[in-house]
Specification:
With 27 residues, the chain is mainly beta. The chain has one domain. The chain contains no helices and two strands.
C-alpha cells in the first residue's frame, strides 16, 4: 500500500477492487 494515500491515518476502511471492505492499520 502506498504511503501517500493516507499519510495520517491509523485505521482506515479499504475497499478492494473485488468489492470487499476491510480495515487496514498503518504499519
Amino acid at each position: 500500500m502506498r504511503k501517500d494515500l493516507h499519510p495520517n491515518f491509523v485505521t482506515c476502511t479499504v475497499t478492494c477492487a473485488c468489492g470487499n471492505t476491510f480495515e487496514n492499520r498503518a504499519i
